[in-house]
Design brief:
The protein has about 180 residues and is an alpha+beta fold. The chain has a domain of about 80 residues: SH3 type barrels, CATH 2.30.30. About 25% of the residues lie in helices and about 25% in strands. The chain has a four-stranded antiparallel β-sheet with strand order 4-5-6-7, with no helix packed on it. The chain is elongated. The N and C termini lie far apart (about 100 Å).
Length: about 180
């Protein structure tokens, strides 16, 4: 065996002996004293858990009332309004301003051309559009009914909450 190999083995053996010697001593005496102090402290009584009341289910007694979570009956829908039933034209081609919600559109002016008044509307995409009476605008089937110098009035068709549609008048006011 060479001298270098013997020296390496001796060094490794020495390190192992020192590590084993370090592990054999007890350095946790302060921890044992702390645990003994905690155990020696006075133990108070444990508080009782709060009383849990049992759940009592409630049975809904509708009697002659309608179920609030079920669909509305035909009787209620017929009696809800005497307004004519609104039908949407799903075959109609969408116009450019129908791609924007109303709050993303700003009326910036008006002009008259050929005896007809047009509203100048700026959309959120930065483009400027012209719209006249009868054009559709907004995402709720809004149809322009009147254009004045200060506002564009329209009628939107929105769900009525009972499976039908209702008309909702609104307007775009001239941006300042």
């Amino acid at each position: 065996m060479s001298y270098a190999r013997l020296r390496n083995r001796t060094a490794a053996l020495t390190v192992i002996v020192f590590l084993l010697a370090a592990c054999s001593t007890d350095h946790v005496e302060d921890l044992r004293q702390y645990v003994a102090q905690v155990k020696a402290k006075h133990k108070g009584p444990i508080e009782a858990l709060p009383k849990i009341e049992p759940f009592v289910p409630y049975a809904y007694q509708a009697n002659d009332r309608r179920d609030p979570f079920g669909p509305a009956s035909a009787k209620i829908i017929q009696g809800a309004s005497s307004a004519p039933v609104i039908q949407l034209d799903s075959a109609r081609r969408k116009e450019p301003l129908e791609g924007f919600p109303l709050d993303a559109l700003k009326m910036t002016g008006t002009l008259e051309r050929g005896g007809e008044r047009w509203a100048i509307i700026k959309a959120s995409d930065g483009n400027v559009y012209w719209a006249k009476r009868g054009n559709y605008i907004g995402q709720s089937n809004g149809k322009i009914t009147q254009i004045t110098d200060t506002k564009t009035e329209l009628i939107e068709v929105v769900p009525d909450g009972m499976g039908g549609w209702q008309e909702n008048p609104t307007s775009l006011v001239m941006a300042e």
